Amino acid sequence: MMDRKITVSGSPFPSDGPPARDASTGEDILQLNPTYDVDDERHSLSVSGTQVNSPVASIHDGKEGHDVEKVNIDFDGIDIYDPSRPKFNFSRRIKHFTWAWFTLSMSTGGLALLIYAQPHQFTGLRQIGFVVYIANIVIFAGIVTVMTLRFVLHRGTFMTSITHSREAFFVPTVFLAIATIITGTQRYAIAEESTSLVWFISVLFWGYVAGSLFVAIAQYSYVFKTHDLGLHTMMPTWILPIFPIMLSGTIASVIAETQPEMNAVPIIVVGLTCQGLGLSVAFMMYAHMVGRLMSRGMPNREHRAGLFMNVGPPAFTALAVIGMANGLPDNLDLNMGMVLDMTVIRPIAVVAAIFLWALSLWWFGIAVVSVILSPPQYFHLNWWAMAFPNTGFILATISIGNEIQHEGIRWLATGLSICLLLTYLVVLFNLVRAVIVQDIMYPGRDEDVLDGTDT
User: Fold this and answer.
1) DSSP states along 20-47
2) CA atoms within 13 A on the CB side of 182
3) Which of 431, 57, 247 is nearest to 255 (CA)?
């Protein structure tokens, strides 16, 4: 068994006042450069090498000092942020292949959906989208394979990962990736005349709803019971457990249009219910997020890309309400003598979508400004938050433009789509580079490190 020491360079909470005193003796209490012994085998290198990785770093030294907060780590005499640090083999690095890798799959699937929905198509664009859809399936299968290898080669990491105070919040990204595969399958692989495939996609929907509802209840229940997370450490990842159930409405809005009426109506009703649940919980999280930003300032620069997650809930809800309204039969009889008039329901859906789109726009602006003011220094998988949630924002823009038949909004969506494609390519390039130079999948550099909030 090997011990390593983490030494804090100076007190993270400096004070200009007199030193603290012991109430019983009256003697001064000296608090300088504390050193902690960490059992390496027990914690599996789960202690962050720098508080740049930690939400807790965001609360030190006022609203801006957290960007320069440092912690020195002695890992066999190696500085994990030294470019010339030793390289590890694959079997050792795979231990740090975290659930956050599924953000790559969900972002790729989102890109495929965005290509399909483009208001200005050209010959071959849908074929390109189909290739991206297939690539997403391959990426998803590859990530599942490597995650399985991690759990097999490093026993105990499965339970550690799903209960970890940081990595566990990325477990729901598996369902987000599955959601993009289901919707992508509907768009690219399901023909309306294929009755068996239409029924198959409805079965996938109901299975997804059950699984995502379980995750939303089980994960939050575990967090409430086990973790002690201060509101001053609030991060956008806290929204992730509710995200999958919310996307049930988005899936419903996509698949309902090809379902027979006996299937379409229950799917839309359940989709609307799930969408409402997800958005309601997201609003509660927004209250904490705004309070955290007001009292503590922006997150550490390494986490600011995660602010784009706040764009997703209202954007995907705007997309879903329009899609579900369009998926309802023209005259829906609720078996109670009341027939819903779609000429009323659909305009209301558009109005609600515009209302929610504005909230997404505000969060998008906040995230853009925060990242520009203090860009991240190192690559993290949370960079994919700049892709997937913004996909929902652009898709909602396209839907609104189509509903009100406004060509200017459609061209705006096309421009935003080009920006998102460039963002996707930049993040993908940095991901590949980070894997090659071992900036990620390296001890202390991934989401499996303790962030100091789990006490």
Assistant:
1) PB-TTT-PBPP--S-EEEEEHHHHTT-B
2) 29
3) 247
List 28's β-bridge partners, or say none: 21
Could you write out the DSSP letters of every residue in 85-146? PPP--HHHHGGG--GGGHHHHHHHHHHHHHHHT-SS--TTHHHHHHHHHHHHHHHHHHHHHH
Average pLDDT per consecutive 10 residues, the chain (455 residues; last block may be shorter): 41 42 45 40 38 42 47 58 82 92 96 96 94 97 96 92 91 96 93 80 95 95 88 87 95 90 89 95 93 90 92 96 87 58 83 96 96 92 95 96 94 96 97 93 84 38
**Tell me, what's the pLDDT at 165?**
87
Structure tokens at 344: 């009323």
The DSSP bridge partners found for residue 340 are 332
14 neighbors 65 (Cβ within 8 angstroms)? no
Quick one: which of 446, 430, 357, 384 has its CA closest to 176?
384
Q: Which residue has the tokens 């433009």?
A: 401
> 3-state class of 450 per DSSP?
strand
Q: What is the C-alpha separation between 73 and 62, in angstroms, rounded?
A: 24
Please name the residues in contact with 431: beta carbons below 8 A apart, sequence gap of 6 or more.
Answer: 104, 379, 381, 383, 440
DSSP 3-state percent helix, strand, coil across the chain (nearest 5): 65, 5, 30
Give the Cα separation of 265 and 259 in Å (integer): 9
* Alpha-helical segments (H) within 256-311: 261-296
- What pLDDT is attached to residue 343? 74
pTM of the model: 0.82
Look up residue 440 and give its two tokens.
Answer: 């990620």
Asked if residue 110 lies in contact with residue 420, where contact means CB atoms within 8 angstroms, the answer is no
One-letter amino acid at 144 equals V
For 40, 107, 310, 385, 392, the CA distances from 381, given in Å and listed in that order, are 24, 11, 16, 8, 19
Which pLDDT does position 16 carry in this prediction? Answer: 43
Determine the Cα–Cα distance for residues 72 and 287; give it in Å rounded to an integer: 35
d(CA 336, CA 330): 17
Instruction: Please state, in angstroms and rounded to a whole number, the distance separating the CA atoms of residues 310 and 240.
Output: 10
Residue 370 tokens, joined: 């925060």
Report yes or no: 320 and 253 within 8 Å, Cβ to Cβ: yes
Please tell me the distance from the alpha carbon of residue 104 to that of residue 86, in angstroms, as a whole number.
27
Cα 177 to Cα 196: distance, rounded to the nearest angstrom: 24
* Predicted pLDDT of residue 336: 52
Q: How far apart are CA 152 and CA 433, in angstroms?
A: 26
Classify residue 375 by its DSSP letter: -
Single-letter code of the amino acid located at 54: S
User: To which residue do tokens 């995907």 refer?
Assistant: 316
